[in-house]
Design brief:
Number of helices: 6
Number of domains: 1
Structural class: mainly alpha
Order of helices and strands: HHHHHH
Shape: elongated
């Protein structure tokens, strides 16, 4: 898989964590950088670990589904993308995003990284290497999450929902790109 595609996937997956980080930053009154680092660390680690778990699950299934792997990748990526776009368009349904304590932070880290699990399955069924993607996904999520906390602490809700729309749209485009390339349309 091309490096630019891996980078786009990593950025798209980080958008949920980025949006949650902005919302978390809004709730912080003090120690923004300390909590920003902590939030970013949790999100980055989980975003890197979940694709690996998905990849390992996919390895066990790869012989069974190799003839339809491009369709699985397409459905997973477009489905995740549509879910993100849908969540980005919801209005008036704010979640409790205060994550200065470990338990809520763990729950948010898992919740924002479930999409990454599905992407790991996708990498596996496509026969792609997982090491470079998980490094990119973890680092980009860490950086964007830290920046998100700082932005949220400074300017509030303005960008939060838009990031989910951008991330979801990117995953949908990548899903269509995989399908088109495997079907030989372009």
């Amino acid at each position: 898989m091309e490096l630019i595609t891996i980078l786009l996937i990593a950025i798209a997956l980080a958008m949920d964590a980025f949006a949650v980080s902005i919302a978390s930053g809004i709730t912080l009154r003090e120690r923004c950088y300390y909590h920003g680092f902590r939030i970013a660390l949790f999100f980055g680690i989980f975003q890197a670990a979940m694709p690996m778990l998905g990849y390992l699950l996919g390895l066990g299934l790869s012989d069974l589904i190799s003839s339809v792997d491009h369709w699985i990748a397409f459905v997973l990526l477009v489905g995740i993308g549509l879910k993100m776009v849908h969540e980005g368009t919801k209005r008036g349904e704010e979640k409790d995003l205060t994550c200065t304590e470990t338990k809520p932070l763990l729950l948010l880290a898992v919740a924002t990284s479930i999409d990454a699990f599905a992407v790991g399955v996708t990498f596996s069924v496509l026969g792609e290497d997982i090491l470079v993607p998980i490094i990119f996904i973890g680092i980009i999520t860490f950086v964007l999450s830290f920046i998100g906390v700082v932005i949220g602490n400074r300017i509030g809700h303005f960008f939060e929902r838009r990031m989910e729309l951008v991330g979801g749209s990117a995953l949908i485009a990548i899903g269509f790109g995989i399908l088109i390339s495997h079907l030989g349309i372009i």
